Amino acid sequence: MNILYLNHYAGSPLHGMEYRPYYLAREWVRGGHRVRMLAANFSHVRSRQPKQVGLEHIDGIEYEWFASPPYQGNGLGRVKNIWAFQQALWAASRRIVTEVAPQVVIASSTYPMDIWVARRLARMARAKLVFEVHDLWPLSPIELSGMSPHHPFALLCGWAEKTAYRDADVVVSMLPKVHDYMASRGLDLRKLHIVPNGISPDDWAQAPAALSPAVAAVLEKARAAGEAVVGYAGSMGLPNALDTLLDAAALLRDAPIQWVWVGDGHERERLLTRIQAEGLNKVHWCGPIPKGQIPSFLAALDVAYIGWQRVPIYRFGIAPNKLMDYMMAGVPVLHAVEAGNDPVAEAGAGLTTPPDDVPAIAAALQRLLQLSPEERQAMGQRGRAFVQAHHTYPVLARRFVEACQ
After folding, report:
1. pTM of the predicted model, to two decimals?
2. Mean pLDDT per segment of 10 residues, for the chain of length 405 residues?
3. In this structure, CATH architecture of domain 203-390
4. Which fold has domain 2-194?
């Protein structure tokens, strides 16, 4: 098939996140399909922005970058960026359809407003229209950020969401527990298919990249002190509940534990200020590291932490990329969550605690560290086996294409 994949924030190994569009498209190309990725040339989640506007070929995928203004945060600048991208796609629709002749058009930009231009492209090409759901908008900004349901942006998202559920031929959701909600918004559930996030076996088949000297030195110093290492790899944002992790570090400040973080995000400066102000000298932030170094970092940990806020939106399920990496690395996971699903508990790959209960998180961490190395290794191997069985991109890409066909 010829596939048009609209993803505003699409990334690649050259540019950083988002990786899911790249991994799915690469598998489709390997299966003989043609994929053109339509993406903005500026995204807040990428570590590097594309150097040009127009076509770029990456691992057989045709990336077409569209000019969009840079922005910071979630204010008016981001709205202008979204508008510029959608406007550029609308203007280029006829050319794109002529060049690609798609049989499938996928709208997959986190926010739902790309459904209108995707519908236009699908109708012009007489192609199947697919709506891929990352998060539930406008419910996510309403429940996570306190946005009013009557805010113009929330109303626009709601209109787009209803349009997508009505007009899409197929709806693919990363979240597993969305059936009742989507039905309440008008979706015929016969259209719905669940395709979660996953990992690429290729990334784990080769020898992992060596850690930078600075990160390696922090880990070596902790080991030399005879202390356990608890790690976090990912974004430093409010949804990641890193304040709770700092609260646990403060509660366990006299325990033989070192805390090592890699990543970056909007909350970085505030969190680093808090670490310094509270004298949490066993908490080390090492900055972002290349994706190729993540397996090496995770392999050096005794326990990996992932946390969430306690918010109702997670009743529909969670699909975090970094949790798949944690489990694939074979490291036991401390998971602070209350959600519709829990891969850690399903796999027996660690311990799960309530998301905002600092004493419970500290106690669960101590229980994990009191286990023998062999018991922790067995937990990690169960997690790895679970991901290999259910969350590899060759499997997920095939499920996605079968849904489209």
Report:
1. 0.89
2. 98 92 98 98 93 95 97 89 97 98 97 97 98 95 90 96 98 97 97 96 90 96 95 92 97 97 93 98 95 94 96 93 94 98 97 97 98 97 96 96 94
3. 3-Layer(aba) Sandwich (3.40)
4. Rossmann fold (3.40.50)
